[in-house]
Amino acid sequence: MTILGLNFWDIVVVVVYLLAITGIGMYAAKKVKTVGDFFLGGRKFGKLLTAARDFGIGTSTDEPVVVVGQSYTIGLAGVWYTLINMVATPFYWLIRPWFRRMRLFTIGDFCQMRFGGSFGYFYSIFGLLLTAVTIGLILKGTSAAVVGVTGSAVPPWVVVLVMAFLFLLYGAAGGQYAAVFTNVFNAFFIIVLSVLLIPFCVVKAGGFTPIARAVNNASFFDLFGTSAGEVTGAFIVVTALVTLTAAMGNPNVATVIGKTEWETRMGITHGMLLKRFCTVAWAFSGIFFLALNSNVKVPDEVFGTAIATILPIGLIGLMVAAMMATAMSCCQGYMVIAGAYFLENFYKRLLAGKSEKHYLFVSRIASVVCAVAGITFALVFPTLVDLLKYAWVVPSFVGMTIWASLAWRRVNRYSAWTTAIVTFVTQLICSYYFKMSFVPMCIIYMSVGWVTLIVVSLLTPREPQDKLDEFYALLHTPIGQEDKLKYAAVPILHY
Amino acid sequence: MTMENSETQKYANSVSDQGQLDPQERLRRLREIQLPNERKIIKHPDFEIAWPERVSTIGFVVITLICAAILFGTWFIGKLIASL
Fold first, then answer.
1. In chain B, which residues have their Cβ closer than 8 Å to the Cβ of A220?
2. DSSP class of residue A479?
């Protein structure tokens, strides 16, 4: 019996899995007593839970959709659409503890502390928007995959709304605790989801040799992109630099939940390395599926079609459920971050001195509102690859300022503002007026941005000395040595 | 008592709120807890890049090697299948 394009037993698996995830999320709500619990889980998490959360929030269903689709279309080089972030992985080992030491909630707090009010507000709006876009990207990718599995029997907007309803339900209640607990549950299924297609494709094709013969194009197996498509050596190098810069401007980079610096750095690097293995599996899945079926025209639908035509009953349902649950956990993590931006950087500044209960209520409402904005993006945005490139570029407008501000005292509010505006305008002119392709556009706007940052920093007044001293005192004082900060009365936002 | 412990104790005994401290004294204390010049890579008052701790350096190198191994493994498997 088929319902909505899926077998009855697949539907049962999907429903049970999603209810289990929602139940875990609702259970987590019991642990939330304060705003710190809601946003950061009270920063009580060890290595395993931190790694599971970072793996979960860093791995969303849109990524296998893009990588499988692009590998199917252009070959193994399609892996770079996600693997490009690997360049940033060793740097996470260094930079995450810095943000743990800053003892703050968001990059909005960071900007407020380093550059003063106006740039802090600017980044907070920017962070809220970017978070909403990210939620949109995840929901869109997941709905495309599920539509592919069901043979378009379920419209994408229905998939988006079902996921949205469930993650809003437990997300608003459980906050960061719900994100962590559901991600632990999902982490296992993300890994299964990542590798499951490979054995079934190989068995169905009759081994690796028939796959190689069916693809019949050696360059299709070239990691460095000699096959057709935009993924060339220059694309890889330039995009790696952009993503490394953008890593610092990402709204979730400062939202660290580890108990100490050690848990923080172990969590992020293990989570991200695990993700890289999954990414490679997605790419091979795309190529192997091509050997079995070369008739899928829309890249975003390849992953879903592969699941529907290759996997047996029961496992199809498990894949759909894991995809949806992964997306939900990820979106829920982002909606919590959005709530932190609103509460810490706007609401508390306007209405200080309210009770913890009041702030917790506002956090929940703000999280839901931002998630609704993301859901709207998911329903109106164009293709996934367009969105993904947008998500690479935009955080770098601020990322270069944040990188520089950690090392150089001369970086100030004037250079921060000018760099953000100039890079944004340059990127727009390159893209829309000169209609440049991705690589030259990135080279130009990044170069213009760095030159602007250095020149304006040198030509304009410094930030107040005591504010700079407070900032760098936080940055250089390890967790556990807070007495040193209290000795000089350095304000600490959140331990 | 180790040197580090005695230093921590010194700070713990002098914990203050911002309002309690004379502004000049606060500035002096802020200066006191800044990164010492000898721990900086670039010994210039405008730069704040500390020499990385051993755990940071070793971890960075190890993770870079793991990433390189993932890339090499992917490239190798691709080549292997293409050669069949």
1. 82
2. T
CA distances from A278 to A59, A71, A124, A239, A250 (A): 9, 14, 32, 20, 22
Contacts 24+ apart (CB under 8 A), B54-57: B56/A93, B56/A94, B56/A97
When CB atoms are compared, the residue of A97, A280, A489 closest to B17 is: A489
Between the CA of residue A492 and those of A105, A123, A471, A475, what are the distances in Å?
11, 20, 10, 12
A406 lies within 8 A of chain B by CB? yes
With respect to residue A478, please indicate whether it lies within any of the assigned structural domains: no
In 3D space, the residue among A100, A101, A43, A103 whose CA is nearest the CA of residue A493 turns out to be A103
Instruction: State yes or no: ipTM above 0.85.
Output: yes
Q: Is residue A162 assigned to a domain?
A: yes
CA distance A492 to A475: 12
For chain B, the structural domain boundaries read: 17-51, 52-84
Residue A216: both structure tokens together:
């019949």
Give the residue from A487, A490, A492, A493 with the most B CB atoms within 10 Å of its CB, the best one to mutate: A487
The span from the CA of A304 to the CA of A293, in Å, is 13
The alpha carbons of chain B give a radius of gyration, in whole angstroms, of 24
Q: Taking CB atoms and an 8 Å cut-off, how many pairs form between chains A and B?
A: 133
Q: How far is A435 from chain B (nearest CA, A)?
A: 32
* Helix intervals (H) in A355-437: 356-380, 384-393, 396-407, 413-428
For A473, the closest chain B residue by CA position comes to B34
Prediction pTM value: 0.87
Please indicate if any CB of chain A lies within 8 Å of the CB of B57: no
The structural domain count of chain A equals 1
Write out chain A residues lying below 8 Å of B83, CB-based. 212, 218
Q: pLDDT (tens digit, 9 = 90+) per residue, A19-55?
A: 998 899 889 999 999 999 999 988 889 999 999 888 8
Q: Any bridge partners for residue A3, and if so which?
A: A6
Report whether A399 contacts A248 (CB < 8 A): yes
Whether A472 has its CB under 8 Å from any CB of chain B: the answer is yes
Asked whether A337 and A26 are in contact (CB, 8 A), the reply is: no
Instruction: Please tell me if residue B15 touches chain A, with a CB cutoff of 8 Å.
Output: yes
CB contacts, 8 Å: B59 with chain A? 93, 265, 269
Q: B38: which chain A residues are within 8 Å (Cβ-Cβ)?
A: none
**Residue in B with minimal Cα distance to A262:** B55
A211 neighbourhood in chain B, CB within 8 Å: 81, 84
CATH of the domain at A97: 1.20.1730.10
| CA torsion angle A97 B13 B29 A94 (round to 10) | -10
Task: For A403, name the nearest residue in chain B, comparing CA atoms only.
Answer: B49
Tens-digit pLDDT profile for residues A217-275? 878 888 886 555 677 788 888 888 988 898 888 888 888 899 999 999 999 999 999 99
Q: Considering only the beta carbons, identify the residue of A90, A211, A486 that sits closest to B60.
A: A90
Give the domain extent around A122: 2-383
How many residues are listed for chain A in this entry? 495
Q: Which residue has the higher pLDDT, A386 or A183?
A: A183
The Cα–Cα gap between B39 and A474 comes to 16
Give A-chain residues touching B45 at CB under 8 angstroms: 409
